[in-house]
Amino acid sequence: MIRELLQSITGYPALLLACIGSGIVVPLPEDFPLLYAGVRIANGEWSLGAVLAITLTGVGVRDLLAYGAGRTLGHRVLSRPGVLRFLGARRMERAARLVRRRGAVAILAGRFLVGFRAPVFIAAGTAGMPLRSFLLYDGLGLLVAVPLMVGLGVVFGEPLAEGFFWGLQRARLVMATALAGAILVGLWRWSVGPRERTGEE
Q1: Is 26 helix (H, G, I), strand (E, B) or coil?
Q2: Tens digit of each residue's pLDDT (9 = 90 or more) over 99-144
Q3: Largest distance between two CA atoms of the chain
Q4: What is the domain partition of the chain in residue ranges?
Q5: Distance between the two ends of the chain, CA-based, in angstroms?
Q6: Helix (H) or strand (E) holding 181
Q7: CA nearest 152: which of 164, 141, 143, 166?
Q8: How many C-beta neighbours within 10 Å does residue 181 have?
Q9: Cα separation of 68 and 72, whole Å?
């Protein structure tokens, strides 16, 4: 699947659209088109300057659209069951909590949380965060994260992209396994506790 997606991004316009739609229209994080772009640079197909200009613009537009959706639609629309199912009710709750606690700094933190970016940006708009603050912190995050992901694609190429996707596919399984392990450890400690107290008595 990774190879098919990589091959579908055949030019700069497609790269721009992939960056704008990532995480909203396309159910994949922005990291994939950025990694793909790095692979194309390593193969000599694209230039670094053009890729950075396009990816920074595309991801920035995507962020601004998410913020604008929260700012214009507000709680009335975004709290509807159908919308929450699409966005993920738990993710939106966590994003809103992060924005309430951290303010504009949440935008910078959200930039480095895979699969959590759009909810944070939407929550920032819904909370009425000033556009200037949003652009400042989002811009700082973009200037670090976008060149970093493109650079990883240049250095490590397609194997990294495939590994990234493999990890994303199994993230839920890993989380479920970790949760089950934590529950088992908790049950074990709970069952051992009374025995130890009985032995002491």
Answers
A1: strand
A2: 988 888 899 888 888 777 888 898 899 888 999 999 999 999 999 9
A3: 75
A4: 2-169, 171-201
A5: 62
A6: helix 171-200
A7: 164
A8: 10
A9: 6
